Amino acid sequence: QVQLVESGGGLVQAGGSLRLSCAASGRTFGSYAMGWFRQAPGKEREFVASIDWNGGITYYADSVKGRFAISRDNAKNTVFLQMNSMNTDDTAVYYCAASTGTYWSRVISSWGQGTQVTVSS
Q1: Nearest CA to 5 among 77, 90, 88?
Q2: What is the rounded radius of gyration, in angstroms, for the C-alpha atoms of the chain?
Q3: What does DSSP say about strands 10-13 and 115-120: parallel, antiparallel, or unpaired?
Q4: Alpha-carbon gap, residue 31 to 118, rounded angstroms
Q5: CA separation (Å) from 5 to 17, 74, 88, 89, 90?
Q6: Beta strand 34-39 with 108-111: parallel, antiparallel or unpaired?
Q7: Which of 14, 22, 46, 49, by CA, is between 20 and 30 Å from 87?
Q8: How far is the C-alpha of 9 from the C-alpha of 114, rounded, in Å?
């Protein structure tokens, strides 16, 4: 079982940047892919980005492509989401997720508790 704890959320002005972190424990961190999802008020949870076990393959939702970057540090058991050029549509609770295998699939084994990100206009 993987335990995930997000941090780094907060309030930012439109056009600004935030960096989210997700610390993992449990299974060997380098043995599974990781992803970020978000859920805005009144909306379904949606995929944001994913990264495979060694960082070689990444995927992004069209809405964040070119603005967000996912990365991981296997030595520190941490995955990051760098968010730039943020806009009010990015306001949501952000969740990190562990996939079941080394390459990303939407079969999630564990979820973090979420961190709130609010973008003001």
Answers
A1: 77
A2: 13
A3: parallel
A4: 32
A5: 20, 15, 24, 24, 20
A6: unpaired
A7: 22
A8: 9
d(CA 11, CA 24): 24
pLDDT tens digits for 38-86?
A: 999 999 999 999 999 998 999 999 999 999 999 999 999 999 999 999 9
Other CB atoms within 10 A of residue 35 CB: 24
Amino acid at 110: S
pLDDT confidence of residue 1 = 86
Residue 27 pLDDT > 90: no
Q: Coil, helix or strand for 6?
A: strand
Q: How many CB atoms are located within 10 Å of the residue 112 CB? A: 23
